[in-house]
Amino acid sequence: MGEKSRLHLLPLWGLVLILLLAFVLRVYRLDGQSLWSDEGASAFMTGRSAGQIIEAAAGDIHPPLYYLLLRGWAAPTGHSEFALRFLSVCFGILMVALVFKLGERLLGTGVGLVASFITAVSPFHIYYSQEARMYMQMAMLVTLSVYLFCRPDVIGAGQTEPRKKHLVLFGLYILVTAAALYTQYFSFTIVLFQNLVFFVLFWQVWQRRTLWLRWMAGQATIALLYLPWLVKVGGQIAGWPAISQPFGIIDLAKRIFGVFSFGLFWETTTPAKAELVFLLSLAASATWLLVDRRRRDITDRLWESPKGERWFDILFLLLYLLVPALTMYILSFRRPVYDPKLLLLATPGYFLLLGMGLVSLYRMIRKLSELFKGRAIPVLVSITQIAVVILFLSGIGYASSAPLLAYFHDPEYGRDDYRGLARYIGLLSKPEDAILLNAPGQTEIFGYYYKGDLTLYPLPEQRPIDEAVTKADLEGIAAQHRRVWVILWGEGQVDPQRFIETWLNQHAYRTISKWFGNVKLILYSLSTAAVGANLEGEPKANFGDQIQLSAYRLEIDQREEIDGPSLPSVNPGDVLPLTLLWQARGQVEKPYTIFVHIIDQHNHLWGQHDSDPVGGAKPTTQWLPQEVVADRHGIPILLGTPPGQYDIEVGLYDSNTGLRLPLLDDKGTSIGDRLLIGPIYVSKPELAPPLEDLFVQNPAKVDFASLRLVGYDLVKLGTDAP
Predict the structure, then answer these.
(1) For the segment 266-275, what is each residue's pLDDT rounded down to a tens digit?
(2) Would you put residue 622 in left (φ > 0), alpha (ψ -120 to 50) or beta?
(3) Phi-psi region for residue 28, left (φ > 0), alpha (ψ -120 to 50) or beta?
(4) Integer Cα distance of 146 and 185 in angstroms
(5) Which domains does the chain have, with CATH numbers?
(6) Do 664 and 543 meet the contact criterion of CB atoms below 8 Å apart?
(7) pTM score
(8) Which of 331, 352, 362, 469 is deepest in the core (most CB within 10 A)?
């Protein structure tokens, strides 16, 4: 093989390495995170027939093509997290290859390689390449449509190929574009972009009637292929609610730059000064006109050759990037619809602009060197060019590293953890418990992970919520079960007034409250104690001369004889139902949080439940003077709590500063900042709980003589223990 042949293969080997890098980054920890709610809907669709999928999609906010493809994919590969997400991995890798081909056709091999590398390491692309949803399929199909649109043998702008091939490729363009529309509705913005580009190119050459007729016939065919679906969904599209807060054009531009450059978590994971790499490259892309300017006939600027006039190349990429973004902005005048994943289809325009900037710098160095003469200059120029490329690619890698590390390894940036939630319920639930799901879509994702026998109650059953019917349903659940696990997601749409949570806060004892991503899990105790087993009191405790604890009632249905009088007794894993009756002594000016702690004789904290009054439904600033407020707390006795005697301390603290209200005696003198209730006794369990049941936050393995430290938790005071 000659030297020229080997050099000719270098771009190919470069692309192979980039695709290998893209594959590794997309399969790494592919099943490391739980499926979230929307992915659960995708998984559920794979068990339906094609007809059922089409009918379900017609009532959803997404067309059916992705679900149909996923159903066919899952048949041989299975329904595991890895298998379901691997289809998106395939689309993501194809996306990298298509960005290279598009860049090669528009701007040359160098730009194509740089843009494909940026795509390969993009945190934004990697995130959605690891999600069992339709967005990477949408981006891939749209990019393929744009690539076909740019070929001279597709729309017939060039005459270098046989007519039969023109028609075949043009038909492929039509099918791919229609498939993009059947994947995600927002794909229509690329059809707008393509028609705008076509008009800009050919508006001065109306005499080429065959070209115009072919193009209009193609667009009409795409519309006809999509028309049956539009008829089926009817006016549903126009009735979608807002999905974001209002935003301005400057804010949108900042978000697009951040998300496209650093991924979804750009506001908190962007490395210091990393934005300079992208800004410098974007600025350098403007010099493209100086380093590679060529003039050609207007009808041949793009389709006759990949070396078309450079000013139009920049305009093409800007339109590719801006048309979807501006469409989103205009649509948001009526109802805000900002969602970055919809803009995945515009990222190739941005990545190609970045690639254009690097290649412009590379060529600018060569042009500047022409101002000098001398034999040493060519070597110095080559070294400088190589250094610029290495620095740029290293900068892109540096900019992507922190967001990717956060996404892969920091739970704060993970998806909603339904896997962990189902496991948590499975380990801590009791046979008489029930599970309440507040959003219908949660049934699918929760059922994917939860294989237990507890009864599931999807509430509310109507949208909008019918409070009378839902109240009757809640009363029926309370009559049949002693505890209810409530899984809350998307309350703003399902239950905007928080009717379900408020009713439970008023009629049950709120205990464990834990977040699994954006999903909130609350355990409510609905039990009542046996007659005579309660611990009651009327302390008339005065806190800060603002709020009085008039009475309390601790419901415990068993007692333990401990060296004398019997004490109320509980077992590890139980819940202490405590009702506190508060009264405002006057107008309360600040919001106070109520704390309820389980402490031992050394004042060590063993359990807690801190909460705004009535679960947040009745803040202290809304209390009327002398109004009695019944506040229920379910105090969890954690597994692993040592057997022995404990007290319950109760008090209030400023929600903003954390300062506690003092407890005053009859003379107004401070006697502390808490009221003690008790004592109670925690019994010794028959068997030690398995280590996995303790949900140790930081596992460890350190031996101290006959004892072993198996882990530790670090929990901020005032938050629920894990």
Answers:
(1) 989 888 888 8
(2) alpha
(3) beta
(4) 17
(5) 13-410 (no CATH), 418-525 (3.40.190), 535-712 (2.60.40.770)
(6) yes
(7) 0.85
(8) 352
